[in-house]
Amino acid sequence: MRRTVFNEDHEAFRETIRAFIAAEVVPVYDEWFAAGVVPREFYLKLGELGIFGIEVDEEYGGAGIDSHKYEAVIYEETARAGVSFGGSGVHTLLGLPYVKMLATDEQKKRWLPKFATGEEMWALAMTEPGTGSDVAGMKTTAKLSEDGTHYVLNGAKTFITGGVHADRVIVCARTAAPREDDRRFGISLFAVDTKSAGYSVGRKLDKLGLKTSDTAELAFVDVKVPTEDLLGEENKGFGYLGTNLASERWGIAFGAYAQAAAAVRFAKEYVQERTVFGKTVASFQNTKFELAACQAEVDAAQAVADRALEALDAGELTAAEAASAKLFCTEVAHRVIDRCLQLHGGYGFMNEYPIARLYADNRVNRIYGGTSEVMKSIIAKSMGL
After folding, report:
1. Where is the Acyl-CoA dehydrogenase/oxidase C-terminal domain (predicted)?
2. I need a surface site. Which of 58, 69, 263, 368 has the fewest CB within 10 A?
3. Per-residue exposure over 288-318, b if at least 16 CB sit within 10 Å of its own CB, e if not
4. How far apart, in whole angstroms, are the C-alpha atoms of residue 364 and residue 1?
5. How would you classify the pairing of strands 150-161 and 215-226?
6. Where are the beta strands (DSSP E) in 135-265?
């Protein structure tokens, strides 16, 4: 399909990323998959390549490009190769927007140079055991010390992507009790140094998919967080979280579309090589019809993902539009990847084939960043229902 979302600079970047993946990721990816984590030093290579600094201002060592289109290229190229960059996606997609939006000049000078190089990896800790999508129901607390120099952080978080390798984590915690008329009040954001006393990383969670992405449980026992590490204003954290949910949901939508496109590519290559009953699997009408239907769905998902990307870059992507894009693209990817795995037969169930890993990786897209059911609620509300 003809696309207008990318220009020559993006395509040149694509060639760089594709070559990097072929040289630095594909040869060792099976080792990463078996280990269940990407080596920490790999993130330094991403920093050297300039990936983490694309949207960081030039004065802090970045390229100062205010666009998510380079991220979109990375989604497409990692999916195309059947690999991932581990938990590094949260560093830029989830961590950076909060720093750019909320950090003071002093905080930016302290944090962003090492953010851009990968020396200091960031993660976001929002979800708690037992709360799920109910962010306002969080129990983690941060109480200001009597002398006003620091907060004392206590609580636990779970499902924290990038949590094992993170050097600094944006932790959402209650600094005040909820109001009777506003249970969202009282949440604040803190950029917590993971080397702090009382901060601990619990289990590295054993997930169905996303095996190379480090996802962990975190615990805080009387962790002292300096007041200068408060992000934004006290008690306004819930509003900040809502501001960045649209970009997070776009990222999941675009990543899902890219996975669906990759699945069609994997299946097409497989059925052209595999023979059964003396003929290639690709020669059967059912195969052609299945892949044609999958391609049509991918084309539609690409259009939705691209439209959301343009709106995001223009600062116009609404919560309802982001929810709609996430719902549509993730549901399409679910159907397409399942059908493409079916075309692989028994080999589609083997982890040595990228379609099997893709099938497992894709499942979480309809859960994290807000479930499909939450997306439907947001869309319905925007319809006046």
Report:
1. 235-383
2. 58
3. eebbeebbebbeebbebbbebbebbbeeebe
4. 28
5. antiparallel
6. 141-144, 150-161, 168-174, 187-193, 199-204, 215-226, 230-231
Q: Where are the alpha helices (DSSP H) in 314-345?
A: 319-343
Range(s) within the chain of domains with CATH label 1.20.140.10: 237-381
pTM: 0.94
Assign residue 70 a region: left if phi > 0, alpha if psi is -120 to 50, beta otherwise?
Answer: alpha
DSSP 114-139: HHHHTSS-EEEE---TTTTT-GGG--
> Is 248 one of the catalytic residues?
yes
Instruction: Give the architecture (CATH level 2) of 237-381.
Output: Up-down Bundle (1.20)
275-332: per-residue pLDDT in tens? 999 999 999 999 999 999 999 999 999 999 999 999 999 999 999 999 999 999 999 9
Q: Name residue 107's amino acid.
A: Q
Into which CATH architecture does domain 121-233 fall? Answer: Beta Barrel (2.40)
Tell me which residue has tokens 């083997």. Answer: 350
What token pair was written down for 329?
């693209």
Residue tagged 């997930």 (tokens) = 207
Q: Where in the sequence of the chain do the CATH 2.40.110.10 domains occur?
A: 121-233
Pairing of strands 122-125, 168-174: parallel
Number of helices (H), then strands (E), in the chain: 12, 10
Place of tokens 């950029």: 191
Fold of 6-119: Butyryl-Coa Dehydrogenase, subunit A; domain 1 (1.10.540)
CA-to-CA distance for 73 and 271, rounded, in angstroms?
27
| Segments of the chain assigned to CATH 1.10.540.10 | 6-119
| φ, ψ for residue 224, nearest 5 deg | -85, 120
Cβ pair 1, 305 in contact under 8 A:
no
Q: What is the mean pLDDT of residues 178-191?
A: 93
